[in-house]
Amino acid sequence: MAETSDARSSDRRARGRPRAWSDTSGQNVIKSLDRGIEVLERLGEMGASTLSELATALNQPPASVYRVLFTFEARGMVDFDPDSQTWNIGAGAFLIGSRFLRRSSLAERARPALRALMEATGETANLGVERDGQVLFVSQVETHAAIRAFFPPGTLSPMHCSGIGKALLAQMPPRRVEAVVRRHGLDRFTATTLTDPQALSRDLAETRARGYSIDSEEKNDGMRCVAAPIFDMHGEAVAGVSVSGPALRLPEDGLPELAREVVRAAQRITEGIGGGIRPGQ
């Protein structure tokens, strides 16, 4: 007898969740596990941290945080440096995180374009996506120059002062941009950081008009970045590609020429994932 669609749907639900656990509300959250993940996430944000620093940042007792760290250390998720008495994200966390990249062909298909972009410009090429209102860097091809930008995969950066962040914000509807600003604010990092919503809005309008964004020492003094959006098959901006480097090697009068290489790389990646720009964009 042919299997009905209702039966197939029921089977899929059973495989995804126990039948009796259709409720996905907070009552099914394992609180100890949730707290453990919070420790791991905060350690990732802070970098090398002592137990007391991490406990203070989390507003949790040091003994509780230590038990979480000890458990993660046994799994290779965190490392402890006895000389500096600091904890760091471990190789185990990287291995799990790297499996996220294998879910999509984006990073893999972008790699040749990133390498070509680095070779054409002589500067570091980056690939990033939006994650919860921030830029998540997922791939990078570093320049061979001694002084260079460095955004290792997994790094998170505010969108309002990032080349890739502004390239993606410029493609979002105003309400979504406002939601990102409300959630994360417009923190100042340098004298040129855009901390006024109207100034940011004007910058995003210019970005849309020319097809690429510019981060002119807005996150780090002495560093510039040019970025362009990557579009999926629906014409939606799903990622961004950028070139970043010291301002001395990226003078303002040379940015338009650099931008042509960046836009060309973005177009190559867009085509590589079967994407395209919506008519009228």
UniProtKB/TrEMBL annotation:
Region (Disordered): 1-25
Annotated SUPFAM superfamilies: GAF domain-like (SSF55781), Winged helix' DNA-binding domain (SSF46785)
PROSITE patterns: HTH_ICLR (PS51077), ICLR_ED (PS51078)
Sample GO molecular function, one term: DNA binding
InterPro entries documented for this protein: GAF-like_dom_sf, HTH_MetabolicPath_Reg, TransRegBhcR, Tscrpt_reg_IclR_C, Tscrpt_reg_IclR_N, WH-like_DNA-bd_sf, WH_DNA-bd_sf
Matching SMART domains: HTH_ICLR
Pfam families tied to this protein: HTH_IclR, IclR_C
Keywords per UniProt: DNA-binding, Transcription, Transcription regulation
The protein's name in its UniProt record: IclR family transcriptional regulator
